[in-house]
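Show me any protein, fold above all:
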Amino acid sequence: MSNIKAERFGSELFAALRGRYTVPPLIERDSALTIDDAYAISLDFLGRRLAAGERVIGKKIGVTSKAVQDMLNVHQPDFGFLTDWMQADGDICISEKALIAPRAEAEIAFILRDSLSGPGVTAADVLAATESIAPCFEIVDSRIRNWKISIIDTVADNASCGVFVLGDTRASPRAHDLPRLRVTVTKNGAPLSEGLGSAVQGNPAHAVAWLANTLGAYGVTLNAGDVILSGSLVPLEPAVKGDVFEMTLYGIGCCVARFI
């Protein structure tokens, strides 16, 4: 991909983020775009965010469960970067965080003690490198019109990430059977969904290993101190101002996301 094309689409997505508007799907305007092209666009998009003062504090995996893949019609995982600007406390101001059409998903976050660099990273390596896990809401969002995304569009658009919220509690991943961890989610006090850690590629640690190996092909590492979002355990749920979501990750703790 030419630098000019990566810069054009990266600039377009950055402007859409700052302006809170959507753009037509990239793949509809350039059918020759590849995953590598999408990653180049994502890096340009990220570079503009860093130039504006943001700082990378982690990475994310998305579209890992069958429920989410079927919902978005994207049938392979995607990946993106987390910045300090994207981290929110329990209160998420939709306008301040430039959210357009947010959707909440319950996840397990990994906080790394040691760096991981692919290829060859295994789930056992992930467990050994992880300081702790935490309940987490990722609020996905899309700068692509009407959420009409392909794998190309979502990778280019930083894996459709909006913001994320970490719960206060931490636990060692080595003290839990991650595939059997159970989560329940409520919306405005009413039961919404539930799922297991096994929804994420059979084991969230497998998903983090996949991310380390995939990013390793681009020379990107998972760094000590990084927050890694491992993918949703439940279907995505649209959110609007006034909504309150609460997740309980049994044996670990809770996380709350309030939209204001």
The longest strand covers residues 130-140. The chain has a mean pLDDT of 94.
